[in-house]
Design brief:
With 365 residues, this protein is an alpha+beta fold. The chain is built from eleven helices and 16 strands. The strands form four sheets. Strands 5, 6, 7, 8, 9 and 10 form a six-stranded mixed β-sheet that branches. Strands 3-2-1-4 form a four-stranded antiparallel β-sheet, sandwiched between helices. Strands 11-16-12-15 form a four-stranded mixed β-sheet, sandwiched between helices. Helix 4 crosses helix 11 (330-340), helix 7 (185-204) packs across helix 8 (215-224) and helix 10 (283-291) packs parallel to helix 11 (330-340). The longest helix is centred in the C-terminal third of the chain and has 32 residues, at 244-275.
């Protein structure tokens, strides 16, 4: 079950597939007692996907059996014990993918020649992903960070490790010999290799980068590093061999401070837009502006959800969840459309937008 979504992975998921590419979405829950319903809902929505495959005359028997087999395999990979707010399963001839999302999704089955990715895209934007590179004299560990956690990222060349005769980094830390260790040319070469590996990761998936290590390690990195020299440095040793929870607690204050700065920046941009008549707010106005490619900055409150329907014209009106023509993920639709037209999408704490009804934007014109 996947959690982290890179731009390259998203591009791969969005390419056309042989029909049918099946998208199965269902809400999930992190805690009891709400999560008791998750297994039943998953079984029912997968059964509905199979029913639609069976009833579709455009799906040959052999292809239907292949996709059904991949649906079944995907279900076995679902770990509801570690569920978040939403679950997305993709199945197509020869492949399947399972994603756990930190944002709610509507229950839905879609058969098409592409996967339904708008909820995945919106969740990625809301996640405020970052990298943490933890360094010691003998190991460089990369961590994938999100809203409330980090996990080890085994990507590119990471983790990097080195060993040599009579080398004991932990002992050198205990006896205070670490500074001389980081002046050693072999160790500096190792730090350069970590910097080069990190540069490759950032080329594929650019994010805010935090680098942790002993002060001596960070000082050496200032001398030999490239992209890591420009990162946010946190003097904290031991995290290269640490646990995800330990790393998260170490970087959490920095992440919170960055989120606060981002919210303040958004507030100032929106206030300036009001004065220049470039401000838009509310689902209906932003939906129209997003379709026209006019949104430069979109701000969305983290837990804002709304259900709407078309009024047989050019506007959206409130609707009830479950209505035949209801659009329950209109917020995610707008986020995806804005990202596709080059807008900067920022998620802010609930209530931060005041009277703007959960969404606000700065228009290009």
């Amino acid at each position: 079950m996947e959690h982290a979504l890179s731009p390259a992975t998203l591009t791969g998921l969005r390419r056309p597939r042989p029909y049918p590419a099946v998208s199965v979405l269902t809400p999930t829950h992190r805690r009891e007692p709400d999560n008791a319903q998750d297994r039943v809902r998953l079984r029912n929505v997968v059964a509905e996907a199979k029913r639609q495959l069976e009833a579709d005359p455009a799906v040959p028997r052999e292809r239907r059996m292949d996709v059904t087999r991949h649906l079944d395999q995907a279900v076995t990979e679902v770990d509801l014990a570690h569920a978040e707010e939403g679950l997305v399963i993709y199945a197509a001839p020869g492949e399947h993918h399972v994603w756990s999302l930190p944002r709610p999704v509507p229950e839905r089955v879609v058969l098409s020649d592409t996967f339904l990715t708008r909820n995945l895209v919106s969740a990625q934007a809301a996640e405020r992903s970052f990298w943490v590179l933890s360094l010691s004299a003998d190991r460089a560990t990369l961590w994938n960070g999100g809203t409330d956690r980090v996990s080890e990222a085994r990507t590119g060349e990471f983790p990097l490790a080195r060993s040599r005769d009579n080398f004991d980094a932990e002992r050198q830390e205990r006896i205070g010999d670490l500074p001389s260790t980081f002046r050693d040319e072999d160790t500096r070469h190792f730090l350069r290799a970590a910097d080069t590996a990190m540069s490759a990761v950032l080329r594929d998936d650019e994010r805010t980068l935090y680098v942790t290590g002993e002060p001596a390690a960070l000082s050496a990195l200032d001398e030999v590093g490239g992209v890591t020299r420009e990162a946010v440095h946190l003097p904290h040793g031991g995290l290269a061999h640490g646990t995800p929870e330990t790393v998260w607690q170490a970087v959490r204050p920095l992440v919170a401070a960055e989120a606060l700065r981002s919210t303040d920046t958004v507030a100032r941009a929106l206030e300036s837009a009001r004065g220049h008549r470039a401000f838009a707010a509310g689902v209906d106005e932003l939906w129209q502006s997003a379709r026209e490619g006019r949104v430069r900055l979109l701000a969305v409150e983290e837990n804002y959800r709304v259900t709407v329907r078309d009024d047989d014209g050019d506007h959206l009106i409130p609707a009830v969840s479950g209505d035949l023509d209801a659009r329950e993920d209109i917020v995610d639709e707008i986020v995806e459309q804005c990202l596709e037209t080059g807008a900067d999408v920022r998620f802010v704490p609930d209530g931060a937008l005041g009277e703007a009804e959960g969404m606000a934007g700065v228009l290009r014109y």
